[in-house]
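Help needed: design a sequence for this.
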């Protein structure tokens, strides 16, 4: 993505090779700040404090964390201890475990002396893969948006509603839910996005709105409770959200509030799509509602809000009465029956056991194609 004409990814290795650089998402949208991560512990803190967030990006950050750790101590014991600690930083997004396990398996085949260089190389490859995957998701989703656009009057925008940030900032580039939107916009299709603010951390208002704005995509921020009303009044053509984990039945675990959007979409006949890289699928889990560990975050995220005053200062304010408690479940599960389709880099699949079996076959085919290619 370009910011003020300069191309950015969300994570990169510093020129001197000394540290990993990320965009500090806790400071958006009021400040555009980067953060250097010089050790695996700093990478772990960046993930748990949500300096970086979004399922694909935390996987890549954890891998670079392992690379930093291998520079200090490339022993088997350290590799496994660091991998475990990084995997434990956030429990819900399966990409994190997938990316760490994949890297650990590759490093186990190296001598300790080779591990740091190999880990940096593999992390860079994972970053590039994420970009290519999201581009492919974009092309698949673009076909859906184009179909909807074709059925509307030429000047009428396709209205997409999205929840949380499954955008460029949640991945290395493009985003998952946003990739089709960016491609549609770049091709001149009129597209407008309703952005759920996504309480309590406001990933929609702070991050999705920011990145859509930088790219010039028309958008409107709405409160989380507005979606059902907009759908009842025919103002939403389709919903596209991301996923932190998708099960073998096609259930989708994503940011808290996604389920309510799916219910409203179902009641109003609005297509509800989930955009996800296949690394987000957990075939070991069938029933998302019962089997996915759902992160509970601090009530402080509900109590305090960041904002900018009229004089330009960024301040944190307390919005709850003294003495009130706050409960903060961070994810919910949308049952497969409410999902119209899963937009992946390998095509659009039905969210059902049969659709997931077809996806599994496509994943196996893609993996053997890659192995044959070298
Ligand atoms: O808690 P967050 O901000 O990491 O949650 C992010 C989401 O729920 C995204 O929708 C999901 O990770 C998909 S990102 C492409």
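Sure. Designed sequence:
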């Amino acid at each position: 993505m370009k910011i003020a004409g300069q191309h950015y990814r969300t994570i990169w290795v510093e020129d001197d090779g000394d540290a990993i650089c990320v965009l500090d998402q806790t400071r958006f949208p009021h400040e555009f700040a980067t953060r250097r991560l010089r050790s695996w512990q700093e990478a772990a803190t960046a993930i748990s404090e949500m300096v970086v967030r979004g399922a694909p990006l935390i996987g890549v950050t954890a891998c670079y964390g392992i690379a930093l750790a291998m520079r200090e101590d490339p022993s088997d014991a350290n590799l496994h201890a660091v991998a475990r600690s990084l995997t434990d930083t956030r429990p819900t997004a399966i990409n994190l475990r997938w990316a760490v396990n994949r890297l650990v398996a590759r490093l186990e085949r190296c001598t300790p002396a080779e591990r740091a260089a190999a880990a940096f190389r593999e992390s860079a490859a994972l970053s590039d893969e994420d970009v290519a995957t999201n581009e492919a998701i974009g092309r698949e989703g673009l076909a859906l948006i184009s179909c909807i656009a074709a059925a509307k009057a030429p000047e009428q925008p396709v209205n997409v509603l999205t929840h949380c940030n499954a955008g460029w900032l949640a991945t290395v580039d493009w985003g998952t839910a946003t990739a089709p939107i960016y491609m549609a916009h770049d091709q001149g299709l009129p597209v407008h996005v309703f952005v759920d603010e996504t309480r309590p951390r406001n990933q929609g208002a702070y991050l999705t709105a920011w990145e859509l704005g930088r790219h010039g995509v028309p958008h409107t921020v709405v409160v989380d409770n507005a979606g059902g009303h907009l759908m009842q009044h025919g103002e939403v053509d389709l919903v596209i959200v991301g996923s932190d984990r998708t099960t073998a039945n096609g259930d989708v675990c994503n940011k808290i509030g996604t389920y309510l959007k799916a219910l409203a979409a179902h009641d109003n006949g609005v297509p509800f799509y989930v955009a996800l890289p296949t690394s987000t699928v957990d075939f070991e889990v069938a029933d998302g509602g019962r089997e996915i560990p759902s992160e509970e975050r601090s009530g402080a995220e509900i109590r305090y809000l960041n904002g900018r005053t009229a004089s330009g200062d960024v301040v944190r304010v307390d919005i709850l009465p003294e003495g009130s408690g706050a409960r903060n479940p961070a994810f919910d599960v949308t049952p497969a029956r409410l999902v119209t389709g899963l937009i992946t880099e390998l095509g659009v699949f039905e969210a059902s056991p049969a659709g997931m079996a077809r996806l599994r076959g496509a994943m196996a085919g893609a993996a053997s194609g890659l192995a044959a290619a070298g």
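The domain at 2-128 is CATH 1.20.120.420 (Four Helix Bundle (Hemerythrin (Met), subunit A)).
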